[in-house]
Structures are given as structure tokens and as C-alpha cells.
Amino acid sequence: MRAKRLLAALLALLGLLGALALAHRYRAWAEAPPYRQGQGLAFLPPALAAALCRASEGQALCLQGYFAARIPQEIQGLPERYCQGLSGPAARACSKVMGLRLVVFPSSVRLCERLPDPEACARYVGRGAYARGGEARVKEECGKVRGPLLFNCQVGAAMEMVERRPKENLQAAWRLCEGANPDGTVCTGALGSALLSAVKDRKRAEALCLDLPPLQAARCVAGVKRAAEKKL
């Protein structure tokens, strides 16, 4: 009888310690930046990770961190298998990460057509192309397609240019972006957001916009304003 009571007490103690350990782990996870939160979920299946990322303050970044940690740098087999069965924000995040992985493939951006969000994939092919080889690599990779994939590939590359060197690259990035989007509707939001993300200060971002030609400057300021309002 005494042995049973001791065993029950031991099991209760182990249960308490386990609960405390899980609580500590959850607290550490909840306090991490969204991207790191996603990385910490890489051992989970996509559906469960997506559910947990919904509780994050930055769902999109959490999901990107998850897929960046889960999808190997050198993908094996058909690229679409890594995003198979996904929809909504999870499909978009997986497609973005796959875009970065596909830059090393001979077909690169053309393979985006096989993914659940081809346009998100193309934007990240553009980002990866600029990161790997500058504007020459962007021209090579984005030039493999036409239509929406070309457009998104160029927009993604322009965003990467701004985020890496906002002051030095801003004019070239606008030229590249508006070459794909002459009316500037997409460039306004995309590059305004990229600029604010890079410099972290709305007034400084707007001051950099004013170095652009008048029409682009006005669009740039409007994009920064829109991005700042979204953060509120």
C-alpha cells in the first residue's frame, strides 16, 4: 500500500515537472520574434504549425520561419511536393520559401507555376536572384518567363534592392519595378513597404523618397505612409 502511494506521488511529481517544462518552453516560444517562433515549430506537421502560427503576432513571418527551417536548402525531387495540400497563408509562405530555393535550378522561376501561389514564388525568385548576383542575375532569372511571373519576379528583386541598400538602390529599384508596373500601383505599396522596413523610421524613409523624380517620389511617399499605417 505504501509503495503504491509512493509511486502515485512520484508520477504526480513527474507530471508536474513535465507541465512546468512545457509551460517554460511555451513562454520562451511566445516571447520569440515571429520568424524564430516558426523555426521552432519545424518538427511539427504543417497543419499544426499553421494553427500555432495563427496565435503569433506575425502569422506570415511565423509561417515563413517554419518552412525555411523545414524545407532543406537543396530540395530533392519535385518542388511542388513540399507545398502539397496547403492553402491560404501556409501555401503562400511555402511558395515564398520555395522561390528562394528554386534560384539554383536551371528552370528557376518557371517552376513557380507548379506551386500553390506562383506569384509569391516568383517574387522570391527575384529576391534570391538579386541576393546571389545583382541586377545581372535578376535579368537572367526573371527573363525566363513572361506575364505575371515576370512582373512579380522583377517586383521582388526591386524590393530586395531597397531592403539591402535603401539609399543607394532606391532609384534603380523604382526603374526596375516600374518597368514591369508602369502605372506604379503595385510598386507604390511594395517599395514603400520595403523602404520603411529597411530604415525603420517613417520620416527618414519619406526623406529618401524625395531624392526620386517627382512622380516616383510622390508614389514612394504614399507607399511609405500606407506601410506605416498598417503597422499601427
> Fraction of residues in helices?
over 70%
What number is the mean pLDDT? 88
* Overall strand count: 0
Largest sheet: none
Strand portion: under 5%
- Annotation field: number of helices: 11
Q: What is the CA–CA distance across the termini?
A: 63 Å
Topology order in helix (H) and strand (E) letters? HHHHHHHHHHH
- Spatial shape: globular
Low-confidence stretches: 15-26
Helix-strand makeup class = mainly alpha
Rg over CA atoms, rounded to whole Å, is 22 Å
Overview in brief:
The protein is mainly alpha-helical and 232 residues long.
Describe this structure in words.
By secondary structure, the protein is an all-alpha fold. 73% of the residues lie in helices and 0% in strands. It contains 11 helices and no strands. α4 crosses α5, α5 packs parallel to α6 (118-142) and α9 (185-199) crosses α11. The longest helix is centred in the N-terminal third of the chain and has 30 residues, at 2-31. It is globular. It starts with a helix and ends with a helix. The model is unreliable at 15-26 (pLDDT under 50).
Name the features.
single chain, 232 residues, mainly alpha, globular
Topology:
Layout: H1 2-31, H2 34-39, H3 46-53, H4 59-70, H5 88-102, H6 118-142, H7 148-164, H8 166-180, H9 185-199, H10 202-209, H11 214-231
